[in-house]
Q: What sequence folds into this?
């Protein structure tokens, strides 16, 4: 059974850093796509960063500040977020998918950045 467990959300001041984690089961190796998305109430969920090839892809708004990575030994994907801005405030979700299956979403973790 596929399960995604996010953690790392918190409240920080602008300029601060956070690292989000998304632990995947049964194994990170079964997925050929994984990414981080975020959503603000009343708005559509948007892509933040994704790994579907050797080169990560980032939303323009986070380029140079956020880094997506994975640790296969820990079955975990990360999102390192630096130089956080109030506009980064959102619920962050991890998403994965594998061939011939539906996409999977985590439960979300809240990130709040105060001015």
A:
């Amino acid at each position: 059974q596929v399960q995604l467990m996010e953690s790392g959300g918190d409240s920080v001041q602008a300029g601060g850093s956070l690292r989000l984690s998304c632990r995947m089961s049964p194994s990170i190796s079964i997925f050929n796509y994984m990414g981080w998305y975020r959503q603000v109430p009343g708005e559509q969920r948007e892509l933040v960063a994704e790994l579907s090839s050797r080169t990560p892809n980032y939303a323009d708004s986070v380029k140079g500040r956020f880094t997506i990575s994975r640790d296969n030994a820990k079955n975990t994907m990360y999102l390192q977020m630096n130089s956080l801005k109030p506009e980064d405030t959102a619920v962050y979700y991890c998403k994965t998918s594998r061939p011939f299956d539906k996409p999977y979403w985590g439960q979300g973790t809240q990130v709040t950045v105060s001015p």
